[in-house]
């Protein structure tokens, strides 16, 4: 019994020594990890307590916990602002949100993959780096600047594209003030702005593919397209699946600045999304309980999309996000 206890004590001490040696060797990594964790706790998790505003009557000069619960006709109704939000305008905004995001996903998601595959096949390094740099640049432009560029290009009369169209004897195309054409312009500008930046992660995944696989494919007589199809694409399939899941998780979301910058009164039937609906009907009118309720609804639905996409990918044999 004494020997067993002694051995157990030695093993316990050995574990402590190993842990201390490990921490002494890698403490810098944990110190670096502490910074993003602190950031998440302060700026992401701590503000989550204000979700309660969706279930309360918001008062500017009252503490969160002291605010009264939402009520209707003197009776507590914590879903009061959810019911108020669910009107015709909200359902139109929800429809537009889903349609625009699905179009972005259908046309925009493959664009960086195709671009990365093409760049990978370019033999000249200088030309390849130049094309990469040019493709990345739109990502760093704000949507206000991009909309200004689209006005210069697609304005009904003064836009460069419409001037060229009219020179050929055809009528100007209402790219920005007709609903169907606006959708095409919106999706196209989104692809142009993001495909270069989005290709970075795919190029990194392609760089991690074993070169011996390409050599073996060459020995078997495979051409460039065959190697791309049978080696490169399967090699980055897991990366594609993870990014697809993350995009599906945001199908009910969407950026505010992009839609707000590009919409106008002539196309509000297709350009009004949940983000702009919250801004116009909640924030501008100081109805913070309403805006919080809509935001919470958006987050919960997005979470279900994310969980569903991740579960489906795991059932299909992919790794998923977790």
Tell me about this structure:
The structure is a single chain. With 322 residues, this protein is mainly alpha-helical. The chain folds into two domains: 53 residues, no CATH class; 230 residues, MetI-like (MetI-like fold, Orthogonal Bundle), CATH 1.10.3720. 70% of the residues lie in helices and 1% in strands. The chain contains 15 helices and two strands. The chain has a two-stranded antiparallel ribbon. Strand 1 and strand 2 form a beta hairpin. Helix 3 packs across helix 8 and helix 4 packs across helix 8. The longest helix has 44 residues. It is globular, with a radius of gyration of 27 Å. The two termini are 44 Å apart. The N terminus is likely disordered.
Distance between the termini: 44 Å
Helix vs. strand class: mainly alpha
Query: Can you tell me the number of structural domains?
Result: 2
Number of strands: 2
Count every helix, treating DSSP H or I runs of 4 or more residues as helices. 15
CATH class of the largest domain: Mainly Alpha
Q: CATH architecture of the largest domain, please?
A: Orthogonal Bundle
- The helicity comes to over 70%
- Beta-strand share of residues: under 5%
Main β-sheet description: 2 strands, antiparallel
SSE order, as H and E? HEEHHHHHHHHHHHHHH
Instruction: Kindly identify the CATH topology of the largest domain.
Output: MetI-like fold
- The side-by-side strand order for the widest beta sheet comes to 1-2
Described by the principal axes of the CA atoms, the overall outline is globular
**Which regions contain 5 or more consecutive residues with pLDDT less than 50?**
1-15
What's the alpha carbon Rg, rounded to whole Å?
A: 27 Å
Look at the structure and name the CATH superfamily of the largest domain. MetI-like
């Amino acid at each position: 019994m004494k020997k067993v206890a002694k051995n157990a004590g030695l093993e316990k001490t050995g574990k402590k020594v190993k842990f201390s040696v490990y921490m002494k060797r890698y403490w810098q990594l944990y110190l670096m990890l502490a910074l993003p964790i602190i950031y998440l706790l302060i700026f992401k998790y701590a503000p989550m307590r204000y979700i309660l505003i969706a279930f309360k009557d918001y008062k500017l000069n009252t503490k969160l916990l002291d605010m009264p619960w939402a009520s209707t006709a003197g009776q507590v109704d914590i879903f009061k602002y959810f019911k108020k939000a669910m009107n015709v305008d909200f359902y139109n905004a929800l429809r537009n949100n889903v349609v625009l995001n699905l179009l972005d996903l259908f046309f925009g998601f493959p664009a960086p993959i195709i671009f990365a595959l093409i760049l990978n096949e370019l033999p000249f390094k200088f030309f390849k780096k130049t094309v990469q740099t040019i493709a990345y640049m739109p990502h760093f432009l704000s949507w206000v600047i991009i909309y200004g560029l689209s006005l210069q290009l697609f304005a009904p009369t003064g836009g460069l594209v419409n001037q060229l169209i009219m020179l050929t004897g055809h009528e100007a195309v209402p790219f920005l003030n007709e609903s169907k054409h606006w959708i095409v312009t919106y999706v196209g500008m989104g692809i142009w702005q993001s495909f270069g930046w989005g290709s970075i992660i795919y190029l990194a995944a392609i760089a991690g593919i074993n070169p011996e696989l390409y050599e073996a494919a060459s020995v078997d007589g495979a051409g460039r397209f065959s190697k791309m199809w049978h080696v490169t694409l399967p090699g980055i399939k897991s990366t594609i699946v993870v990014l697809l899941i993350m995009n599906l998780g945001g199908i009910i979301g969407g950026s505010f600045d992009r839609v707000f910058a590009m919409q106008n009164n002539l196309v509000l039937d297709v350009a009004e999304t949940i983000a702009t609906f919250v801004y116009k009907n909640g924030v501008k009118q100081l109805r913070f309980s309403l805006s919080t309720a809509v935001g919470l609804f958006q987050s919960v639905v997005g979470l279900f999309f994310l969980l569903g996409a991740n579960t489906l990918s795991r059932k299909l044999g992919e790794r998923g996000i977790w």
